[in-house]
Each structure stands twice: as C-alpha cells, then as structure tokens.
C-alpha cells in the first residue's frame, strides 16, 4: 500500500452534493444601466455569455468556465471547493489578470456570493426558478462594506444539463 500525503482528504466532502444543481451549460445575460461603461454610454443587455459548471475527475472540486463575446467583459475560470459552516469558497481568475476569493452559499432556491475587501466589496444574490433552469440575480458593490449600490443584473438560463 502506498502512503498518502497528509494534505489529501480521506473522502469527498458531502457538502459538494449541494452544487449539483449548477452542473451543466448555461447562457448568461447581463444588464448594465446607462453610464455603466462611462459617461453617456447607453443601457446594454448582453446575452452573449456562456457558463459551464463541471466536476473535476474526482468530484472534489467544481470548475466554472465563463466566456463572453462582448470585448468589454472578461472571460473567467472559477474553482469551487467546500468551505466552513456549510459554505463554499470560489477562487476566481479572469482574462484581465484579476484574481479574487469569494464565499458562496447555495440552496434549492438561492445562490449567493460575496467578498468583503477594503475599498471594493461585492455580493451577488440570485434566485432559482421553480424548475431550476434559471437563476435571476444582481451584483452589488460597496466601497466601505456597509453602504451597497446596484452594480449590474446577471441571470443564467440552462442550455443543457451535464
């Protein structure tokens, strides 16, 4: 028998099963209010985003890959792992070179993500449709972690299950 390094978990965290409703291919739609991309820019609805959630081979991590046809929006990859207290941790990386760590909660009716960082905190709240094939939500931002303002709407529409 081969010895295992001590940092390899003995078994899969059962909390990962709660991520199963995300697995599959999704179309993403973002709505940006007038002025979002600079003074005088018009409101914009962009449905060119594609997001795929898929398990790594051992189903210990969920990988989220997002691409957007709009050149103003970055492509990204996210690795989701179990966190503490039933939450998850999202390790986000995008094509601009940005990397961020978010906390995440997920249940049958809601998806929530947040990060509290000095100068730029963010949070997302999305609600699942009754059939689980749509998530309707929005991002908010805060400079002080106390006063929040709407950033942009972001909804997902299931294209195909995994």
Q: Short summary of the structure?
A:
This protein has 162 residues and is mainly beta. The protein is globular and about 65 Å long.
Tell me what you see in this structure.
The protein is mainly beta. Helices cover about 0% and strands about 55% of the residues. The chain contains no helices and 10 strands. A 10-stranded antiparallel beta barrel has the order 1-2-3-4-5-6-7-8-9-10. It is globular. The model has no long low-confidence stretch (mean pLDDT about 90).
Give the SSE map:
Blueprint lengths: L23 E9 L11 E12 L6 E7 L7 E7 L5 E7 L4 E8 L3 E6 L5 E8 L5 E9 L6 E13 L1
Antiparallel strand pairs: 1-2, 1-10, 2-3, 3-4, 4-5, 5-6, 6-7, 7-8, 8-9, 9-10
Tell me the strand percentage band.
over 45%
Query: Which descriptor suits the 3D outline?
Result: globular
Q: Approximately how much helix is present in the residues? A: under 10%
Radius of gyration equals 17 Å
Calculate the mean pLDDT score and round it: 92
Number of helices: 0
Q: Largest beta sheet, briefly?
A: 10 strands, antiparallel, barrel
Class computed from helices, strands and strand pairing: mainly beta
Biggest sheet, spatial arrangement of strands: 1-2-3-4-5-6-7-8-9-10
Would you identify the regions where 5 or more consecutive residues have pLDDT less than 50?
Answer: none
